[in-house]
Structure formats: structure tokens, C-alpha cells
Amino acid sequence: MNELQKCLANYPEIYGFEQPSEIYQFNPEKAKQLLEEAGFTENENGLREKIVKKTPSFQFKSNLQVGSQGTEVNELQKCLANYPEIYPEGEVTG
Prior knowledge:
This protein is mostly helical. It is built from 3 helices and 2 strands, in the order H-H-E-E-H. The mean pLDDT is 82.
């Protein structure tokens, strides 16, 4: 009986829980390889991290003026409603 089987022997059979179809052996080198392939690099503290650069959901591409309408105005109103500190003296009217 391997280590995983010993551990699992202590748990009752639970409805909907299936025993693993494949049991993997502990392999730190393989784990490092898989993490590297997934983009997780080791930082100066020895911890693995993945830097994810998120694309903004919306980007303003023109200057808005009083009386402007459309998608950019709607997005600006959402932004001002969620982050009032951007324009504290402003009033969101849409």
C-alpha cells in the first residue's frame, strides 16, 4: 500500500467522490518542470509566481466633452460611480 492509499484509507466512501484513476508519485523535479511550462517562475525568495498582465476591459480613445454620448460616456459614468475619488467634486448623472 503506497502513501496515498494509506491516507485515503482513513476517509469514508463519500457519495460522488471517486477514487483516483491514476496515482502519481512524488517527483519535485517533474513538479518544477510543469510549473515552469505553465509560466510560474521562481522569485528571489524561492517562491514561484506567475505574472499576469491583464488587458483593461475598456480603454478611452477620445476626449469627451459636455454633451458627448455613446459607449465611452457610459463607461466613464461606470468608472466615476465605482471610483468617486477620481473626480470628487463631480456628479454622475447617467
